[in-house]
Amino acid sequence: MRVAVVGTGAIGASWTLLFLRHGHRVVATDPDPSAEQRLRAWIDAHDDTPDASVRQRLAFVSDPAEAVREADFVQENGPERIEAKAEILAALDGSAGPDAILASSSSGLMPSQLQEHCPRHPERVLVGHPFNPPHLIPLVEVVPGRRTGEAAVRSALSFYTALGRRPVLVRQERPGHIANRLQAALWREAYALVGSGAVSVADIDAAIAHGPGLRWALLGPFLTQHLSGGPGGIAHILDHLGPPMQTWWDDLGDVRLTPGLVDSVVTGVRDALAGTDQAALLADRDALLGRLIAAKATTTTL
């Protein structure tokens, strides 16, 4: 399959590596004059496969219209601004073949809003939102818009599944889609707790990373609750802890990102990272992610 990657920043580069690893021919494009050099250097640094043909399947062009002209699937990774995406998608819609899927990596824009700028074939436009970095994290949110055809949805789900991803179909458009909204709910309370002085930034991170985050890496919130309920499962949990949980919900913070709160969080993160090599931290995170994902793949239930 011929895949076009439009925009080769952090997300686009990671997508590119994933597509190449699965044998696809990739034509990448980005307006930055140094983009090709940076992309190829990034691929060299992150591709640990012995397959020399990976790099040979990558081409780079400066013109987005040329990049998508013969593509079967297009992954757009432009700036997260509707004005920027409108210009990009209009050009892609005007050049890509009628059967090519146009998938945007947008982390929060509505696909119906994106379709407005693709008058030729809005039925093939949807959101294919990855989690960073896409070549490691399996989740992809597939979000159709009002005018997206069923065939395009099926094709996108099938394509991402064949890449070893775990696509989820979002049946109703929501700002931020699904997983980012779940993260935002946690961030909201985390920022509220820090802002109130209840806990430090470092201890918030420790509470998640060494507590529920370990379970959430294996199972989602509902199955985690269910297993916590013993033989009675989630029904027992909701009977036993449902009323207290409602009081916790009622007590959650109503937080605003004031300059003072932003300063507290930035300072807290800086303090938590004091003496830490951030590049090494990132490398360790990615290495552990890879081992965790590989371990999960050996099970029959997770």
Q: How is the topology of this model organized?
A:
Blueprint: E1 2-6, H1 10-21, E2 25-29, H2 35-46, H3 53-56, E3 58-61, H4 64-68, E4 73-76, H5 82-95, E5 101-104, H6 111-115, E6 125-130, E7 139-144, H7 150-162, E8 166-169, H8 179-196, H9 201-209, H10 212-216, H11 221-228, H12 233-250, H13 259-272, H14 278-297
Parallel strand pairs: 1-2, 1-4, 2-3, 4-5, 5-6, 7-8
Antiparallel strand pairs: 6-7
Helix pairs in contact: 1-2, 11-12
Domain 3-hydroxyacyl-CoA dehydrogenase NAD binding: 3-171
InterPro entries: 3-OHacyl-CoA_DH_NAD-bd, 3HC_DH_C, 6-PGluconate_DH-like_C_sf, 6PGD_dom2, NAD(P)-bd_dom_sf
Protein name: 3-hydroxyacyl-CoA dehydrogenase
Please give a structural write-up.
There is one protein chain. The chain contains 14 helices and eight strands. It has 302 residues and is α/β, with parallel strands linked by helices. The protein has two domains: 2-169, Rossmann fold (3-Layer(aba) Sandwich), CATH 3.40.50.720; 179-297, N-(1-d-carboxylethyl)-l-norvaline Dehydrogenase, domain 2 (Orthogonal Bundle), CATH 1.10.1040. The chain has an eight-stranded mixed beta sheet with strand order 3-2-1-4-5-6-7-8, sandwiched between helices. β5 (101-104), α6 (111-115) and β6 form a beta-alpha-beta unit. The longest helix has 20 residues, at 278-297. Keywords: Oxidoreductase.
